Amino acid sequence: MSVFPATAASRAAGRGAAAAGGRAGPRGRRAAYLFIAPLGLGFAVFYFWPLLQTFYFSFTEFGAFGGHTFIGTDNYIRVVKDVTVWQALGNTIVYSLIGLTALPIAIVVAALLNRRGLRGVALYRALYFVPFVTLPVAVGLVWNWLYNGDFGLLNDILSRFGADRHYWVSDPSTAVYAIGTVMVWSTTGYYLIIFMAGIKGIPRDYYEAAEIDGAGALRRFFTITLPLLSPTIFFASVICMINSLQTFDLIYIMMAEKNPAIGDTQSVVGLFYKWAFIENAQGAAAALAFLLMLLIAALTYLQFRLQKRWVHYE
Amino acid sequence: MRRRTLLGGALAAPLLTACTGKGGGSDGGGRTTLSYGMWDPAQVPGMEKIIAAFERQHPRISVRIELTPWASYWTTLKTSMRGGTAPDVFWMNAVNFQLYAAGGVLEPLTGHIEADATPVDRHPDALVRLYAHRGTQYGLPKDFDTVGLWYNKALFDKAGIKYPDATWTWDDLRDAAAELTDPGRRVHGFAAEMERQMKIYPAVCGAGGYILEDGRSGFGDERSIEGLRFLTDMVDRGWSPPQSAMVESIGRVRYWSEKVAMNYDLSAMAGQMYAVPALKDHGGIAVLPRGRRRATIIHGLANVISAKSRKKEAAWKLVHFMAGREAAEIQATAGATISSYEGTQDAWLKSMPEFELKHFIEMQEYAVPYPSSENTAVWENLQYPLLGAAFSGKGGIEGAARTLGEQMDRALKEERAS
C-alpha cells in the first residue's frame, strides 16, 4: 500500500473513499465517475490510444507524406538485427546503473539533513532541488562548458594537479560517464525530497529508544532509517529506473552530431528519435518504442517481485 | 551548428508573429494570397523586397512569408504536407529534394518553364540539375554556395610563407600547415574537421573519388579513401586539432579566434567573417588547392511549389519571377547569399571589397553538386559515427571508409527496394 511517500495523505484518502463507497447510491456513484472522467479521458486519448496506434504502426511501413502499408513483423526483425540497437541498449543500461547511484547519495544527504538542530534545512533543500527544476537544455549547455577540453573548468582544475587535458564528452571511453554524472547531479535533488519526507515518517520513538540503548548515529542509520525507509527506496528505484531507461534530452543536448563518441552514448530513445524524425523510418521506430515499453514493463515487474525480499513495511 | 540553430529560432520567434499578423487566405476582390515558406531570418529583408517587387507586377497576388526556424523546418513541413496546410511555395535543399519529388508532393515545373521561357540556363547547370528528378524539373535555384580556402594573412606573414593562390596543390597546403602549426600558442595550420559539405566531400572529389554515382557509394573507392586520408593525416601529424577537440569548438570558431590559419568554409559565411574586425583586416580567400583534380562542392536552395496548393497559377508566377534577373539583383544587394542568376553577383562582390569573393564564383566551373538520393539522411547519418575515430587521430581510415561504403550501399539498396 504505502509505496508512495505521502503515506499519511493517501491513507486518509483511502479511508474517505471507503466511507463514501459504503453510502453511495447510484447517483453518488455517477458523480464519482464524473469526477474521474476527465482523468480517464485524458488517459485514453493521450496514453492508451497512442499506445494502440504505436503497436499498429510497428507492423507497417510509412510513406514520408502519409499513407502506410502493412509489412508484418519486418520492423521487429530489423530492430533485433540492427547492431546499433544493441549498442544503444547497452548504453542505456549503463545510464540506468549510473542513474541509480543518485539514490544512495540522496539517502545519505537526506539522513544528514534530518538531523535534529540542523539550521538552514530549507536552503539546502532548495539548493539540491534547483538542478532538478532547471531545463535539461540549460544543464547540458553549462556542463558542456565545464567539460570543454580547451577552456573547461574541470580541465583547468585537473591541470593544476598535473593531469593532461581531456575531452570528456568526445572521448568514447569517458563520454557515457560524463553524461551519467550530469544525470545524477540533476536528479539527486528530486530523490532527496522524497527521502526526506520518508525519513520524516519514521516515528521518533524508535530513535530515542535506540539512543537510550546506546546506539550510535551510524548504527541508528543502518538499523532504523534504512529498513523503515525501504518502501520509499523501492518507489524511488522504480521511478529512477524508468526515467533512466527513457533518457534522451540531456544526451541530445550534450552530444553534437559530429561527436566521435556519438555511437557510444546514444540511448534507445535517442535512436528512436533518429529513426522516426530524421531517417523517415517511423514503422521501425514504433517497433523500437514498443519493445522499449515491454522492457520497462518487464523490469518493473521484476522489481515488484524482488521487493518482497528487501522492502519492510511497519 | 546547434547553437546557431537555437539562436536562429530565438530570432525567428518575434518575426514569425509579425509575419502571420498580416492577414491570410485569399480575400474578396479576386485577390490571391500565397504563403511562402523559408527558414533563414537573415534573408527575410531581402525576400520582402523581392516580394514587394513581385506584388507591384502582379497587383492581384500578395505573398505572405511563413518563417519556420531551421531546427523544425523539415518536421513541420512534412507534417503540414500531411495535414494539407503546407505553404504554396517554399524553400528546398538538395538533401531533402528527392524525397519530396519522389513522394509526389512537389508540382512539376517543366511544362511551365517551357511555356514561359524561364531563364533556367542563366543559373549554374550543376545547381539546376540538383532539383530535377527522373527528367522532370521541380525546383528553380535562387542562390548558391561554394567552398573556398579561408586563410589568415597575419599568421602567414608571421611564419614567412607566401599566401595561397590558384597554383596551390595539396602538397603546398600540407607544407604550409606544417609551418603554420605552433603548438606552444596552440595554433594549428588547418582544421581537418569531420564535416561533409565543407571538408569531406571536397577532399574526396579533389582526390578523384566520388560520394555517390549510379546509385553506388564511392566511399570504398581507393581515390575517395586517399581524399579522406588527406584530412585525417593532418590530424595525425598534429597540423589540425582532432575531431574530439573540434566538436567543442568547431573549425570556423577556431578560424575566427585566429587559432587556425587555414580553413575550408562556405561563401555564405563571408558576412559573418566580415563582421570580425581582425578577419576583415587580414582574412584572405583562395580557391581550394588542387588534389588529383580541381573540385569544390556547390549547393544552393531552390523555390518549389507544393503539389497540394490550390493556387498553383499564382504560385508559378512567383517562382518564375524569383528565377529571373530582377529578383536575383535584389537578392544580391539585400540578401546574405550569392544569387545564382548569372551576372548578378556584382553587388555581393562589392559589398565586401576587402575580400576576394570572386574566387567563390570562379569555382563554379569545376564544382561538384552536393550528392543526394531519395533518402539522403539515412546514408548521411552513417558517416559521422563511422569516421569519428579516424578523424580523432585514432587511425583506421581505410577500414572505416570501406565499412561506410558497404553500409551506404546497403542503405541505397533498401531505398531502391522501398
TrEMBL record, chain A:
Domain (ABC transmembrane type-1) spans 88-303
Could you provide one GO biological process annotation from this protein's UniProt record? Answer: transmembrane transport
Its placement in the membrane is given as:
Multi-pass membrane protein
Superkingdom per UniProt: Bacteria
> Which InterPro entries does the entry link to?
ABC_transporter_permease, MetI-like, MetI-like_sf
Q: Which Pfam families match?
A: BPD_transp_1 (PF00528)
PANTHER family linked:
ABC TRANSPORTER PERMEASE PROTEIN, DIACETYLCHITOBIOSE UPTAKE SYSTEM PERMEASE PROTEIN NGCF
Task: Please state what the protein is called.
Answer: Sugar ABC transporter permease
| Chief localization | membrane
Q: State the organism named in the record.
A: Streptomyces alboniger
Q: Where in the cell is it found?
A: Cell membrane
Keywords assigned: Cell membrane, Membrane, Transmembrane, Transmembrane helix, Transport
Q: Entry's Gene3D superfamilies?
A: MetI-like
UniProtKB/TrEMBL annotation, chain B:
Sorted keywords for this record are: Signal, Transport
| Any one GO CC term of the record | cell envelope
Give the UniProt subcellular location, in the record's own words: Cell envelope
Where is it mainly found?
Answer: other
What CDD domains does the record point to? Answer: PBP2_TMBP_like
List the InterPro entries: Bact_solute-bd_prot1, SBP
Signal peptide positions (record): none
- Family in the record: Belongs to the bacterial solute-binding protein 1 family.
According to UniProt, the name of this protein is: Sugar ABC transporter substrate-binding protein
Organism, by scientific name, is: Streptomyces alboniger
